[in-house]
Design a protein that fits this description.
The chain is of the alpha/beta class. It has a single domain (about 15-180, about 210-235), classed as 3-Layer(aba) Sandwich (Rossmann fold), CATH 3.40.50.720. Helix content is about 45%, strand content about 15%. It has a 7-stranded parallel β-sheet with strand order 3-2-1-4-5-6-7, sandwiched between helices. Helix 1 packs across helix 7 (about 210-220), helix 2 packs parallel to helix 3 and helix 5 (about 180-190) packs across helix 6. The longest helix has 26 residues, at about 95-120. The radius of gyration is 17 Å and the shape is globular. The protein starts with 14 loop residues before the first strand and ends with a helix. Bound molecules: nicotinamide-adenine-dinucleotide (NAD). Nicotinamide-adenine-dinucleotide binds near residues 55 and 105.
Length: about 250
């Protein structure tokens, strides 16, 4: 696996849907897969030019997106379930609406996307990659709903991997550490001192950039990982080795 992207014959012409496609990681993943030769359909609740409208919490919305993709391209080969949100609150203060929103988008939304993709891929195989998080396996203060949603992603992937393997569908998770993207990037822009403190804790000495994550997604979608299913690839610069969430 190289961080630099290049054409990949196993991805050339493959049809890939990326949920959360308007987000920082979603855009980076889409660009990388396009450079590898894939046909990428980004979708997001924030529709914008080049990104289709889709709300992953709404089963009809994702089903109709997949139908349009099948009509237009004839098949679906891969799904990257990347839509996600973070809500911060002390565990005992999380209200019902906030809990439901985080679990609804991060976990139920990923379930909807994967189930729709699995049905579309049935008969010819494919690959599904969820974007989890290193704090799906390590408790983090004030992020309980997010941690629980991402822990759920790991089990969602393993159950699906087991059941979909006979259909030739591989299912895996890329679990980023702290990435220079999305909400994290915003926090570090506003509080540069937190960035320096974080870099001290990360064994590899820097935050992840979006390409670190995209490269791993590409690997798990490509034939280079043909024998890999039901696994979580943690892309965290080793932070889990040094820091138990926090
Ligand atoms: N940035 C990090 O440090 C980091 C670390 C670990 C995991 N992740 C995960 O990576 C993924 C992408 O995060 P990002 O950092 O690019 O953040 P981001 O906020 O830039 O991207 C998330 C995208 O999801 C979309 N989205 C939200 N609700 C949706 C819905 N109901 N339907 C469809 N799309 C919806 C948002 O509009 C947004 O474009 C998320 O799942 C996040 O949890 C990020």
């Amino acid at each position: 696996m190289t961080k630099a992207s290049q054409q990949d014959p196993s991805l050339t012409g493959k049809v890939v849907v990326v949920t959360g496609g308007a987000g920082d990681l979603g855009r980076s993943i889409g660009r990388r897969l396009e450079r590898a030769g894939a046909i990428v359909i980004g979708c997001d609740i924030k529709a914008q030019p080049g990104v289709e409208a889709c709300d992953v919490t709404d089963r009809d919305s994702i089903d109709s997106l997949i139908s349009r993709v099948l009509d237009r391209h004839g098949s679906l080969d891969a799904m990257v379930a990347g839509a996600g949100v973070v809500e911060r609150a002390a565990a005992i203060d999380i209200d019902e609406a906030s809990w439901s929103q985080v679990i609804g988008i991060n976990l139920t939304g990923a379930f909807h996307a994967a189930q729709a993709a699995g049905r579309a891929m049935d008969g010819h195989g494919g690959s599904i990659v969820f974007i989890g998080s290193w704090i799906g396996a390590a408790p983090a203060r004030d992020l309980m709903s997010y941690c629980v949603s991402k822990a759920g992603i790991d089990m969602l992937a393993r159950c699906l991997a087991l059941e979909l393997a006979p259909s030739g569908i591989r299912v895996n998770v890329v679990a980023p550490g702290v990435v220079e993207a999305g909400v994290s990037a915003q926090i570090f822009r506003e509080a540069p001192e937190r960035r320096a403190a974080m870099e001290q804790v990360i064994p590899l000495g820097r935050l992840a950039d979006a390409e670190d994550v995209s490269a791993c997604v590409e690997f798990l979608l490509s034939e280079r990982s043909a024998y890999v299913t039901g696994t979580t690839l943690v892309v965290d610069g080793g932070i889990r080795l040094a820091h138990a969430g926090g």
